[in-house]
Design goal:
By secondary structure, the protein is mainly beta. Helix content is 0%, strand content 38%. The protein is globular.
Length: 80
């Protein structure tokens, strides 16, 4: 089984580019995508919230369609 099948639907930064995860399938995005909470996801990994505050996805980090950020356990990104 592909490890990506365990990921929730959302957007993940992979090799410096954002890919949409939908039903375990990854597809690169080429346009900005709006999440349910109003956050925008850009193809370069930039995130812009409803207050126009920007941040950036880190390699391997995923943002679900509702705006919840997930850092994979095997990632070098510090966990909360």
């Amino acid at each position: 089984m592909n490890a990506m099948n365990t990921l929730p639907d959302g957007f993940i930064l992979k090799d410096g580019k954002v890919e949409q995860v939908k039903g375990g399938v990854l597809n690169p995005i080429t346009q900005n995508q709006k999440l349910a909470n109003g956050t925008w996801v850009m193809p370069d990994g930039t995130l812009k919230d409803v207050n126009n505050k920007t941040s950036k996805l880190q390699e391997g980090q995923l943002i679900e369609t509702d705006g919840k950020l997930i850092t994979p356990p095997n990632s070098a990104i510090p966990h909360d």
